[in-house]
Amino acid sequence: MTQVSPRNSASVTAVLLHLLPAVLLFALFAAVGILHVTSRVLVVDMGYRLSKAESEGHSLTRENDRLKLELATLKAPARLEKLAKEQLGMMMPPGSAVVSVQPQLPGARRQSEGQARKPAALRVAERENAR
Amino acid sequence: MRDLKASRVPETNTRWLRLRVLLLGGFFMSLLMVAFGRAAYLQTYEQDKLRGMAQDQYVRQIEIPARRGDIFDRRGTPLAQSVEVDSIWVDPSMLPDARKAARSMAKALKLDAQGTEDLVARLQRGKRFAWVKRQAKPQEVDAVKALGFAGLGFTKEPKRFYPQRELAAQVVGVVGTEGRGLEGLELAFDDELSGQNSRLSGFRDAKGRKLLVQGASDPIEREGASVTLTLDRHLQYVAEKALLRAVEESKGVAGTVVVLDPKTGELLALANAPNFNPNTPEAAQHDAIRNRAALDAFEPGSTMKAFVVAAALEEKSIKPEDVFFCENGAWRIGRYTINDTHPHGWMGAKGILQVSSNICAAKIGQALGREKLVSYYHAFGFAERTGLALPGEGRGVIPFPKAEVSLATQSFGQGMTATAVQIASGYGALANDGVLMRPYLVSKVVDPDGVVLLENRPVEVRRVVSSKVARQVVSMLESVITKEGTAPKAAMQEYRVAGKTGTAQKADPVARGYSDKRIASFVGVVPADNPRAVILVVVDEPKTDVYGGLVAAPAFKEIATAAMAHLAVPPSRTVAPEVVVAPVAPPAAAKTPVTLKPVPERPTVAVQEDEGAGSVRVPDVQGQVGREAVVKLLAAALEPQLLGSGRVVSQTPAAGALVDKGARVTLELATRP
């Protein structure tokens, strides 16, 4: 027995050693396979998330467009005038009620072509920047 | 047994067996080779074709329609916007009873009898696809969903909305169901606005979910360019309101207003009456969709006299102090008689414009000569397209006046046609010291990624008359607004106005002559000393009154008042402001007395103590409304500077301080919370 067992164990080690490359190769293949599959799964998952985010973004853009439209509709001058007249008791200012003041920098009177009204000019009848 | 076998199987048999094995092996090998060959063939030669076939099965091309670009006014207020809304469709083959289903859907959509009929027909005709309602409202979608039919589908389709409703509707135009522009700027800039549809490729799994593999496209790529106009929303609104009232009060059939900045040629407003709501273009009469201001050429009448006088002065055919005999109201030229509304005797150029004498205008035309008259009309921009970028823009006709009578009539604007924009831009030339600017309506077309596709800047077309003549004519036109002139109703308290009325006879296409229908117009330049706006009001076929001074001038005044306030034009003369009384009681907050908040004292400017001629005392304006305070300071020859809005809470320098005339007084205003 004592003679046989080392020879036996030696042979098992030898066999294992003999199989090692094959095992390693198998492990490598398995690892690559798992990695590949994982990455594919990740890509697919990412694709779903991307399309979900895309459609979400799309619906948000749509909602934003809708809200912008609603805002513009609410700010339509005909509606504003009606509200201002009926609810706030306002009226269109007669000519004399609007006093135009010189721009803040008298030296630099910018009459830029693109703007009908100088940005620096203050208008008394305007109440839009009331804090 | 071995022996027996050996004896039983002969030599030849063993060989035969080996041969069979070899043959069989070869056969299988060749089969294998064929299989391999086929595989290699499919993998290499047929690769692309097969891959394409496979992708066709599971990759979907998802087409995303481009969002149509917006149209803005000069300050970025949207005039036209696109929003995606649901369209409802159905697969009729999945409906058990198409007719019954169509009827209940029609009920849910609140369709009328004709619409119901159409829907039933559509559903019975379609095999696998039929529209139920395109571009439906959210509540309609909910109503149809609630019916719970199988085979219903919803797709997003972009729909055009016009948030300002009737505002500038004829200028902006309309878009059809398929998203193509049909009228106005929507048609003129259709290519730019519609943008490029983009395609996305992605997989669709068994559940029909989208699976993107190439990434989403940039949303910017899917947008059309935006168009910015020179129109001003406020002026447009005021112009449309005033025009509608003028047309209504005079029982006219149509009308036009053009507001133009003479220094740049920008069209600030382009109003047309009757108007329509572009959100429901199918309800509008086709007549209302026409942009008359730019498209229609008409006989302008007396408004042309100013150009004749300017041309004659420029050519030195007449002098400002020359007088003409106005034939006491009737002048025969050949077979024709030219009449004035009132008989007049001898008059100078100023008087001719003031009372609008046809006879004397014809005489000035004679003095100028027919070649020069026509060439000056052309120089003022008539009979040529202004290049507004609107489809079908009119150009007007100026036939060469061979006959004596046509020379006479063309001198007062009959026997020729012009568009409203041309007249306004011609007056713009007079207001702009004789330089004609090219009128324009579209200031910018910008791609969503910021690339400017088109940009219009003020362009000088030509100098028509010298600045001296232009100023002379404008000052002559100021007399039209006086009590003795034809348009006292156009006079403004604070601003000097120069203008001209026009009451043209309309040609009768059937009777081949002039009918008793009129076109009343008024064109004004305000302020006359430093023109900021040219405003033309035209009312077609007024019934109550026919004269431009009575029909169109009040509308001009209304628009001019709003325009001067809106453009912050300093008044030509200072008038004490009338106390404004709101028609309804002001909000309660305004009634409560204003308690002044303690404001940290500001370092006062060093004040000169000697009260000389050039110094004034600063009035006390604490607690007053901004407007009153400003008027008070202006009356004291001081320059107010405002911070905030509401009532004055502090002033620098303090009240009672002595300062130089024209010194700046800073007012801090605040509203009571």
Write a structural description:
The complex is a heterodimer of chains A (131) and B (673). Helices cover 62% and strands 0% of the residues of chain A. Chain A is an all-alpha fold and 131 residues long. By secondary structure, chain B is an alpha+beta fold. In chain B, a hairpin with a 6-residue loop joins strand 9 and strand 10. At the A-B interface, helix 1 and helix 2 of A face strand 3, strand 7, helix 10, helix 21 and helix 23 of B.
Low-confidence stretches of chain A: 105-131
Count of DSSP-assigned helices of chain A: 2
Major sheet of chain B: 7 strands, mixed
Give the helix tally of chain B: 23
Helix content of chain B: 25-40%
| Largest interface, C-beta within 8 A | A-B, 58 and 76 residues
Question: What is the subunit organization of this protein?
Answer: heterodimer
Averaging pLDDT over every residue of chain B, what do you get?
A: 83
Task: State the helicity of chain A in percent bands.
Answer: 55-70%
Beta-strand content of chain A:
under 5%
End-to-end Cα distance of chain A, whole Å, is: 103 Å
Number of strands of chain A: 0
What proportion strand of chain B?
15-25%
- Secondary-structure-derived class of chain A: mainly alpha
* Poorly predicted segments of chain B: 577-611
Measured between the Cα atoms of the first and last residue of chain B, the distance is 124 Å
